[in-house]
Amino acid sequence: MKFLQFSVLPFLMVILSVSGANLTHHPHRDFLRCLSLRIENSCTITYTHNNPSYPSVLNASIQNTRFSTPTTPKPYAIITPRKTSDVQSTIFCSKNHGFQLRIRSGGHDVEGVSYVSQVPFVVLDLVNFRDVKVDTKNEVAWVQSGATTGELYYGIAAKTQTLGFPAGICHTIGIGGHLSGGGFGILGRKYGLAADHIIDAKMVDANGRVLHRKSMGEDLFWAIRGGGGNTFGVVLAWKIKLVPVPPVVTVFTVNKNLEQNATKIFHRWQQIAHKLPNDLFTTVWVMKVNSSQVGKKTVEASFKGLFLGRIDELIPLIQYAFPELGLARENCTQMSWVQSVLYFGALPIEPVEILLNRSALPRLSLKAKTDYIREPMSEAGFEGFMNMFLEEGTDLAITMMEAFGGKMDEIRENEIPFPHRSGILFESVYIVQWINEEDAGLCINWMGRLYNYMSSYASKSLREAYYNYKDLDLGINNVNGYTSYEQASVWGLKYFKNNFKRLVRVKTMIDPTNFFSNEQSIPPLLSP
Ligand code: FDA
């Protein structure tokens, strides 16, 4: 006992002094005492409200400023672990002292689920788990959850120009949330999702066990590859298979507005984009822009593409398959794959070190929704859609329509939990953003109307949605108490289709007491 007191006291003092806590009894402080007794590592820091760094640590990776207002519920503490044992300790202490645990990697959750909760909670922020180890010989990498996609892309490109990784466009997304929810990007038609390329993982479960693929078993390994983060445990690192890319790729952009036949060209695009060769990914971004008539606005459809080859091959291919686009040489640029990531992120392609800058993107308030489109929209239907961007509240609205087909068609719906595969023409990601809080209602209302409008065109029997752009309007778990399978199915089936049942079975097996829970975590079945 003497030894224990002697050994933990300095760490207790470090944590309590950093957190600004004092030693008088308080239920919440039992949590801090618990941590201080278990974390023998002064580098892992626990921040509470009293600590001057608390706001900056909390806000550091909040991408959606809608959830960083004074009224947003704040975590009792933020723990930034450096060792696996500190993650185990945080789970142990949260569980024993009645705190919900929210796991944050890159903080891009569009509903703020990684750092907001309606019940007392703490945030486990994996910002210090950001190693990227690339093994070009075996074409694999181990990447920790707190790294960003940009850091991964940069780490690969620093070693080779002929390997890449098929993940999302934005370079500040965290690996932890992105891989655990799927991960679609510009290499998606060629190779599928980021989650399709996970070959091992290291995670800590609700009992503090450290698991790898072998020890967690294939059911759990299946579930964490797209079944959602913060449901099954804390994934600390992922082993991923890299994919071949040519040293030179071609990107292009052709902008067409309402007065330039945008609707006709789009109509053709949706009929052929999913059938183009797998080496060609195309996407259409719809947004409001200035018209050529001074003081007027119009709506633009920006047709963008990535071709895994050179301009000389691309031009005849498009001229044959999609002449309506009118692609010209001057619309195209050759570059490396890693530069193409920056191009699609609307950033300068040099220097590529910008991929390491976690605050390179503006942070605004936003609301997102998604659809999967299986039947072509009529020309009039698409025109009506574009016209909605002329309404109020749309100054910072964008829709990204991303062609599917190719490899996405070939992977079975139940291969991993992400089920939106064969037969999808394109994924539609609707985002509305605003700067002033007073515009929130207007913008969110518009988003609701846009989503209603698209109900005629979206997948019919079940309106599918992409879990990585969470939408709490689809339904949420009960804040306190049990959520039934039926209740959770309302949103669960939209995200996961028939895979939802298996996810519930895995959840029941690995976390029957539902320690890892949030608004849209998979609920366990009640024990008989
Ligand atoms: P964050 O840290 O907020 O976590 C998201 C969710 O995962 C939370 O529920 C969290 O608790 C959980 N989680 C995080 N780390 C975990 C871990 N280590 N273990 C267990 N659970 C964990 N998507 C896409 O497919 N393609 C794209 O191109 C883009 N682009 C894009 C741009 C922008 C600006 C935004 C805001 C979002 C996207 N996305 C996207 C969506 C993105 O993939 C999604 O929001 C990811 O969940 C973000 O992961 P983070 O780690 O950054 O989020």
Beta strands, count = 18
| Strand content bin | 15-25%
- CATH-scheme architecture of the largest domain: 3-Layer(aba) Sandwich
**Unreliable sequence segments:** 1-24
What composes the largest sheet?
A: 7 strands, antiparallel
Strand order of the largest sheet: 15-12-14-13-17-18-16
Small molecules bound in the structure, each named once = dihydroflavine-adenine dinucleotide
Portion of residues within helices: 25-40%
Protein name: FAD-binding PCMH-type domain-containing protein
Family: Belongs to the oxygen-dependent FAD-linked oxidoreductase family.
Cofactor: FAD
Subcellular location: Secreted, Cell wall
Give an account of the 3D structure.
The protein has 528 residues and is of the alpha+beta class. It has 3 domains: 28-125, Uridine Diphospho-n-acetylenolpyruvylglucosamine Reductase, domain 2, CATH 3.30.43; 132-244, Uridine Diphospho-n-acetylenolpyruvylglucosamine Reductase, domain 3 (2-Layer Sandwich), CATH 3.30.465; 249-335 and 364-454, 3-Layer(aba) Sandwich (Vanillyl-alcohol Oxidase, Chain A, domain 3), CATH 3.40.462. It is built from 16 helices and 18 strands. A 7-stranded antiparallel beta sheet has the order 15-12-14-13-17-18-16. The chain has a 5-stranded antiparallel beta sheet with strand order 5-6-10-8-9. Strand 5 (132-135) and strand 6 (140-144) form a beta hairpin. Helix 1 packs across helix 2, helix 2 packs antiparallel against helix 4 (84-96) and helix 9 (262-272) packs across helix 12. It starts with a helix and ends in an 18-residue tail after the last helix. The model is unreliable at 1-24 (pLDDT under 50). Dihydroflavine-adenine dinucleotide is lined by residues 63, 102-110, 113-114, 126, 145, 168-170, 173-174, 176-178, 180-185, 229-230, 234-235, 468-469, 518.
